[in-house]
Amino acid sequence: xxxxxxxxxxxxxxxxxxxxxxxxxxxxxxxxxxxxxxxxxxxxxxxxxxxxxxxxxxxxxxxxxxxxxxxxxxxxxxxxxxxxxxxxxxxxxxxxxxxxxxxxxxxxxxxxxxxxxxxxxxxxxxxxxxxxxxxxxxxxxxxxxxxxxxxxxxxxxxxxxxxxxxxxxxxxxxxxxxxxxxxxxxxxxxxxxxxxxxxxxxxxxxxxxxxxxxxxxxxxxxxxxxxxxxxxxxxxxxxxxxxxxxxxxxxxxxxxxxxxxxxxxxxxxxxxxxxxxxxxxxxxxxxxxxxxxxxxxxxxxxxxxxxxxxxxxxxxxxxxxxxxxxxxxxxxxxxxxxxxxxxxxxxxxxxxxxxxxxxxxxxxxxxxxxxxxxxxxxxxxxxxxxxxxxxxxxxxxxxxxxxxxxxxxxxxxxxxxxxxxxxxxxxxxxxxxxxxxxxxxxxxxxxxxxxxxxxxxxxxxxxxxxxxxxxxxxxxxxxxxxxxxxxxxxxxxxxxxxxxxxxxxxxxxxxxxxxxxxxxxxxxxxxxxxxxxxxxxxxxxxxxxxxxxxxxxxxxxxxxxxxxxxxxxxxxxxxxxxxxxxxxxxxxxxxxxxxxxxxxxxxxxxxxxxxxxxxxxxxxxxxxxxxxxxxxxxxxxxxxxxxxxxxxxxxxxxxxxxxxxxxxxxxxx
Length: 669
Hints:
The chain is mainly beta. It has seven helices and 34 strands. The protein has a twelve-stranded mixed sheet. Strands 11, 12, 13, 14, 15, 16, 27, 32 and 33 form a nine-stranded antiparallel sheet that branches. It has a four-stranded antiparallel sheet with strand order 3-4-5-6, covered by helices on one side.
């Protein structure tokens, strides 16, 4: 892995690493390097030299080796790793073709035409080309003139159209346009009343309707750039003290990160963004690393808006399967997105022409010192002694930000010395709005599907559902899900004045149907255990799911967007490991019909007891916008945690050493 050094503000040091080891043999789970992407491009283009039609690369990613092959190599890393292969999805002759390219053989070893429902990941290039058509379309230009707007201030973007029961579909996108003229906050100035569709195969406007002239929200108050803001200002904050140059508490070898008692591999994918693999934790008692998580990533993000009008009903996005978290990952800003002790990683994906596209500083890794307490105790009853032990909390964070249209998603994986892994997402950016004639809620006499947050501006109600793929291997790959139900019981001993107590009853999920869980209905703890490994007292080693708020879908089950997003019907699912089942919304999500989703896979009701299993967790937000979300939304965060449960013989942070501190004078007011 190559590295360079940049000296930043306050003499802070930022290390930049690249997800592209060039001079050494790659790890089997390394992302494809720029040279490998170029090799894939050459192999595919050479195979279709005779074609007169344009070939486009819709997705290129690592064709993940089978898990046994990876684990076999890990046990003997001096041997040759599994062959490097790429999964390639192309469009050619108005067909979707799925290829497996073997890089060592320099050939396509598998090719099939996809004839099912749905279309592949959209490329950035075709979306930009579709949006540009509007500004050359004379009926649209006439509509802009009719509204008295300056076409040079108009910006357009694309939206997917979904599926609403049609027997036949075409590869199409909707185009929506916005007006700048005094702001760069384009999403807050939508040009309403126009419906426009683009046929992507022919790259031409297939439908154009100017329904009505709607009011245009004002630019006033929408500015968010620090250089453009005027007084009165908000509070100022002191920056965090910089880390001394060269001091990071972790090491990176290739794409493997080692920190404290953790070791894991990090990758980057055009569709899902960060991929964390082979997370293992060192057990000081056993003097070895123990497996926790084989592979994890955000499998899908479903965002349905709640305005069932002619121009809004289709606004239901699948951000991973339609647009790609990796495609829309943004460069992180040192000291603002990430602290001074961060290490930055560059990422690469294949553009529409197959050439590698670099995203600088796409991922950062840093130690987090939140000022919290990891553990403490004071022996207050021992009056002749002062005994107090405190250890500060610390974590290692892996972060990426994807800006998909109006929303910025801050994606964090945090590893704790206690053995916990925290998964968190922060939602910020700009809310989607509808232009209306109202300036005060007393004027509203109809349903407007959102909140009036400024003059002529309704922020639409919507949801965010993020489904995580968590291939856990708790101390090995034979695992089970145990539902520890909390049950109230009556006291039967008449001599005891208490009338009730609660206890636990354990239930092992034997099939996929047993593991479909809607959280919040009944009190329970969910633990993934290895039934073949026990602690000295006899408990099964495991990891417990500590869920976030219990949020589920509110759409009707027969509504078309919900049919496509049926993987959100439950907060928790468990499936047997299957390398091909990694994208909860299906492989081809654009205009999909819900026939290839997590919800469909589990209908086979396969056995999951004492098997290699995958845990799926859906984190949800119901967003009722408010005025504080205008003109840019303060970050709304949520998450969940995986916590060791009878995994260690005793607390893994018992023997952590307290940090050494400088002597500080007593402070008085």
